[in-house]
Amino acid sequence: MKKILLITTGGTIASISTENGLVPGLTGKQLLENVPSIYKMCEVEDLTLCSIDSTNVYYKHWLKIASTIKENYEKYDGFVICHGTDTMSYTASALSYLIQNSKKPIVITGSQKPINLDISDAKTNLLDSFTYACDENSKGVVLIFNGNVILGSRARKVRTKSFDAFSSIDYPRVAIVKDGYVIHY
Q1: Distances (CA, A) of 137 to 88, 174, 182
Q2: How far is 16 from 30, CA to CA, in rounded Å?
Q3: Using one digit for the tens of pLDDT, what is the confidence trace for 79-130?
Q4: What's the pTM value of the predicted model, to 2 decimals?
C-alpha cells in the first residue's frame, strides 16, 4: 500500500461558513474524514502548512511547499496538496520548476465549493488526486481538477464558477481520472 502525504494550505476546499463569508478552517484530517474511501487506497498522513485564501499565496509559500516535499521525499510515495483555486495554477507552475523530474507524483487540487457542502466538487477532486497519486505510472507535478490531469506548467484557470475550471494550455492533458481509474495519454 502506498504512503501519501496530504499537504493543506487552505482555500475553498477547506473553507467553512462564517459571518464574514467563507474562511479556510478545516484541517487535512477533517478533509480526509469527508472521503473515507481514501484510507482504503493508501496509508495517508496530513500536514497543514497554512490555512489561507489562495489570493494570499506568494513565492514564500511556494518555497515552503517545495521544501516540505524535499524534506519528506524519501518518506512518502507521493504528495497531494490542497490549495485554493485562484492561484493554484501559479503554484503548480512554480512547483514544476522548483521540483523538476520527480519520479513521484506531486498533485495539486482544490475545489470551487467547500467539501462540507451537499453539492461540491471537493470530494471528487480529492479522491481523484489520491487515485492518481497511488497509480504506479504517475509522476511529476500535476494539477487535478474535474477528472483532468494537467501538467503543472500548463494549467490555467479559465472559469470562475464551473467545476470544469482548469484547462491545459498548448499541451494535451497527461491523463484523466474516471470511475476510480487513471487513463494515461
Answers
A1: 24, 11, 9
A2: 11
A3: 999 999 999 999 999 999 999 999 999 999 999 999 999 999 999 999 999 9
A4: 0.95
- Site of grid cell 477532486: 125
End-to-end CA distance of the chain: 25
| Identity of the amino acid at 14 | A
The DSSP symbol for 65 reads H
Residue among 32, 138, 148 nearest 82 (CA): 32
What is the pairing mode between strands 166-168 and 155-157? antiparallel
What is the torsional sign of CA 79, 146, 182, 33? positive
- Active-site residues: which are they? 12
Do the bridges between strand 148-151 and strand 175-178 make them parallel or antiparallel, or are there none, so unpaired? antiparallel
Strands (DSSP E) found in the chain: 3-10, 15-18, 21-24, 43-52, 78-82, 105-109, 140-145, 148-151, 155-157, 166-168, 175-178, 181-184
Q: Of 13, 49, 17, 48, which Cα lies nearest the Cα of 31?
A: 13
CB 154 within 8 A of CB 144: no
